[in-house]
């Protein structure tokens, strides 16, 4: 039987893991610069956590199962609902706003294709108990800051506001559940289907036309007066519009003006209420959305008080792919800096001792574990990217020395064993 990994999953080997680690650490650093603290939640949760308000699309894609005790569980398709649960379980009394970030795998039973997997990773954050649009502005600036730090150049941040669309629908008596249906179709970009649904919902002709016009609007600040005019007879929508306008002013203060206002953004999850945003990288093709988020109301839906919450998540795998296509991958560090090579079997124990001494001084070190002859060891060390090889020979040892070989120049010199750490630390530093 040939053992294969499940469809839609991937293995990551050494270089890819180094690149992913670099990106993970860069994001970690930026999130922490904004005062976020990391949390971890279980990979599986009660199924109900994700079926209450995630939306049709996600529910169909959930990996769910019953455990041996007959409990209905699900592999998490995303992390916002688990974070809302943590808040309700443990953080209701914590000083606000609470800033949390996470990095973890998510599971969705989707048809696998380029950039779409059944197991994928999200790096994201939730900001609970702040005020809109202040929080939204900071979070969007944080997302842009991460991409800047990763030197990703070609991306677009699109901003929308669901309060504007929902305000119109509410005024025409469309229920919250029906609104979710409308949002799902807008998210898929299916205009014909949307028109049909709006007919069925008996939306009045003027509202229908305004809604269709709004979702097609895209631009910078110049679209604001156009929206203002369109929604002037809808007080709730006008209030959300003013919030969007305020957000744009704040974004400027946060130093980010590279956005596109796009009122066609509806998001695929049902819990969003106000500002929403998505980040696209065109070169990725159909799965170009590398990040999504916005303001949502999940805690109240889960039975808590109303707490304003905003967040977003990077699709980590898509960020990795974007860096690859834009050729902005990080330079990779070699596996080890130093290789310790016993020249004969009788110096093996001394070689182990020296390797340990170097490792305890934070020098990444490998030591011969296969019992090869020197020529083969040198070739293996070279392939490992080692800059230096410590040759441990019986004659040198009698004089309390080893021979240090510089793999780049080929130069060799004898060094007293007691000086080896300081010499290597010095050489490694100058070779960087
Ligand atoms: P989402 O848009 O469903 O939002 O997912 C966030 C990101 O995960 C997407 O923008 C995309 O890059 C990536 N992604 C989604 N599905 C896949 C897949 N099958 N394969 C690879 N990447 C994928 C959320 O999940 C929200 N919880 C984000 C959020 C946080 N909103 C507020 N706080």
TL;DR of this structure?
With 432 residues, this protein is α+β, with helices and mostly antiparallel strands. The protein contains 16 helices and 17 strands.
Tally the helices: 16
Second rung of CATH, namely the architecture of the largest domain: 2-Layer Sandwich
Class of secondary structure makeup: alpha+beta
List the bound ligands: histidyl-adenosine monophosphate
Strand line-up in the sheet with most strands: 1-5-6-12-11-10-7-9-8
Radius of gyration: 28 Å
| Whole-number mean pLDDT | 95
Q: Supply the number of structural domains.
A: 2
CATH topology of the largest domain: BirA Bifunctional Protein, domain 2
> Percent helix among the residues?
40-55%
Overall form: elongated
Question: Would you identify the regions where 5 or more consecutive residues have pLDDT less than 50?
Answer: none
CATH level 1 name of the largest domain: Alpha Beta
How is the main sheet built?
9 strands, mixed
CATH superfamily of the largest domain: Bira Bifunctional Protein, Domain 2
Count of distinct strands: 17
Range of strand content: 15-25%
Distance between the termini: 48 Å
């Amino acid at each position: 039987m040939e053992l294969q990994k499940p469809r839609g999953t991937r293995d990551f080997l050494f270089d890819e893991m180094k690149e992913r680690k670099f990106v993970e650490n860069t994001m970690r650093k930026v999130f922490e610069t904004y005062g976020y603290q990391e949390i971890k939640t279980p990979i599986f949760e009660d199924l109900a956590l994700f079926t209450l308000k995630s939306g049709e699309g996600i529910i169909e894609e959930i990996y769910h199962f019953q455990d041996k005790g007959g409990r209905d569980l699900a592999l998490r398709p995303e992390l916002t609902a688990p974070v809302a649960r943590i808040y309700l379980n443990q953080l209701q009394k914590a000083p606000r706003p609470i800033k949390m970030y996470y990095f973890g795998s998510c599971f969705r039973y989707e048809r696998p294709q380029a950039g779409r997997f059944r197991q994928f990773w999200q790096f994201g954050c939730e900001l609970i108990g702040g005020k809109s649009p202040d929080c939204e502005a900071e979070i969007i600036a944080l997302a842009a800051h991460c991409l800047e730090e990763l030197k990703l150049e070609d991306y677009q941040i699109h901003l929308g506001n669901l309060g504007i669309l929902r305000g119109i629908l509410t005024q025409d008596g469309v229920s919250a559940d029906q609104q979710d249906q409308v949002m799902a179709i807008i998210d898929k970009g299916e205009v014909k289907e949307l028109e049909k649904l709006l007919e069925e919902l008996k939306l009045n002709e003027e509202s229908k036309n305004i809604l269709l016009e709004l979702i097609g609007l895209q631009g910078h600040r110049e679209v604001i007066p156009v929206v203002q005019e369109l929604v002037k007879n809808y007080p709730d929508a006008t209030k959300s519009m003013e919030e969007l306008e305020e957000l744009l002013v704040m974004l400027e203060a946060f130093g980010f003006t590279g956005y596109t206002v796009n009122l066609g953004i509806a998001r695929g999850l049902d819990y969003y209420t106000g500002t929403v945003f998505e980040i696209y990288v065109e070169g990725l093709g159909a799965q170009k959305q590398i990040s999504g988020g916005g303001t949502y109301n999940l805690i109240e839906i889960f039975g808590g008080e109303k707490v304003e919450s905003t967040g977003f998540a990077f699709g980590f795998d898509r960020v990795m792919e974007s860096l690859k296509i834009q050729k902005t991958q990080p330079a990779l560090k070699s596996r080890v800096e130093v290789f310790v090579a016993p020249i004969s079997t009788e110096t093996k124990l001394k070689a182990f001792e020296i390797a340990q001494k170097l490792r305890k001084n934070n020098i990444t070190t490998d030591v011969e574990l296969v019992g090869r002859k020197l020529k083969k060891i040198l070739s293996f060390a070279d392939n490992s990217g080692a800059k230096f090889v410590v040759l441990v020979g019986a004659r040198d040892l009698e004089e309390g020395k080893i021979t240090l070989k510089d793999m780049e120049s080929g130069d060799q010199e004898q060094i007293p064993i007691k000086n080896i750490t300081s010499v290597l630390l010095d050489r490694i530093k100058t070779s960087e």
